[in-house]
């Protein structure tokens, strides 16, 4: 459990403290996720809701691995795919999806810690493995849909110059552009809100434990 706590601290720093990930934090995050996935396979780790959320958090770094490996292949073999709008947008959207999934799952872990600290008995029926898996699945579905919308918007932007003004493609471009812009704004403000909520939760937990 100490290793899992260290992993959570690393992820909180990477996604909720730093304004943007850098090469060092990304590399440490990937190593931590790989180590965590191995730990969670051990029979010594009980299958609880927190473990399910942490497992899903570690698996989210698969998106980062795909992006990093793609960049390495392009750089090593001098592949021209990096110049295409599709590939460039996809890699950026995968990194954004990873950040959004991680922030939401970290907030779920923080909320569960809050329930355990202040409402251990009352919240027991909520803190189940089934609910944790359901929550993780919903987060993955929502962020995948967000990533698909962003990717569609980027593709339409790249091909919008050749489309007639009143064609169905132009209408689709306008709709996806507005929807993507609104979703990006919502994601930005939601990220700020999650940072505030997480700080408040751990502030309450820390002073509660100190008073005890």
TrEMBL record:
It is found in: Cell membrane. One of its GO terms (biological process) is neuropeptide signaling pathway. It comes from the Eukaryota. Gene3D superfamilies: Rhodopsin 7-helix transmembrane proteins (1.20.1070.10). Pfam families: 7tm_1 (PF00001). Keywords: Cell membrane, G-protein coupled receptor, Membrane, Receptor, Transducer, Transmembrane, Transmembrane helix. It is a multi-pass membrane protein. InterPro entries: GPCR_Rhodpsn (IPR000276), GPCR_Rhodpsn_7TM (IPR017452). GO terms for molecular function: G protein-coupled peptide receptor activity. Residues 32-212 form the G-protein coupled receptors family 1 profile domain. This is G-protein coupled receptors family 1 profile domain-containing protein. It comes from Phaethon lepturus (White-tailed tropicbird).
